[in-house]
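Risk register update: the risk of archive-format incompatibility is retired. Evidence:
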Amino acid sequence: MQFKTAGVIGAGAWGTALAQVAGSAGLDVLLQAREPEVVESIRARRINEAFLPGIVLDDHVSVTSDLADLGACDLILAVPPAQHMRSTLAAFAAHHRAGVPVILCSKGIERGSLKLMTDVLAETLPAAPAAVLSGPSFAGEVARGLPSAVTLACADEALGEALMETLSAPAFRPYLATDLIGAEVGGAIKNVLAIACGISEGRGLGRSAHAALITRGFAEMTRMGVALGGQAETVAGLCGLGDLVLTCSSPQSRNMSLGLALGQGQTVEQALAGKRSVAEGYESAPAVRELARKMGVEMPISLAVAALLAGETTVQGMIDALLSRPLKVERH
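Archived output:
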């Protein structure tokens, strides 16, 4: 099973970084961008000035604004914001060839339907073999060729192995898994938890509180992953714990930086103003809350973040509520 060409849907920072990875791995890559200025910038200067400035793209990477142009590609990486995944894949459906794999690279839970991105793919492109790419990776670092490792989840192990070999680059190391649900849940929930860690940092609550949020947040993530049919071992890997540690530990994370602003006293509107890139935790938090209630999964940190973003509580009210919860035995 060989792949020579890859189409990347979505030219934000992460989509552009993955196009760079695929190009450096030897694929001919076609990157689709909605924004005319991104297309112009890449064609004229080989740089996505809007979303990934300073990175000169590999010669194997070209750009288009037309989804139809990706129809001839051997492999598709889907990287639109999670809340736009359905509409994007629906628009691409007329151009997709049956059997061409789609790797889902966006992290989130669809609002309203409460579905994972693999569910969205199955409903919009039923003839597409699915894979999920998730793990601790900042777009700028990946695009610059700094070492990173991610989970590549695919139910078809033979296809997964082929995709892993195809996307492996000198500094980009995919690890194969077969548990798509576990891979998706980790990537979606860590964004919400990163907002909580940013709030703690902005409020000056200290490193002990930060470590507690990561650890108890990981317990929430694991409970939900297992409740949805995923494996705890997957959530404990790169796509869960690894991604959680990274996203909760650096202001490079859009989600942590959002929380940092909230912890320092900004309103949600002020913290989001002028941001071109999407903080997926803000978009996914309401869906995570609804899903936790639907599944009966205890997720106090995630629910507190959702309440704050919805204007139902204050930062101090959120902190007080979490610290006044009943004492419990520690277990996953």
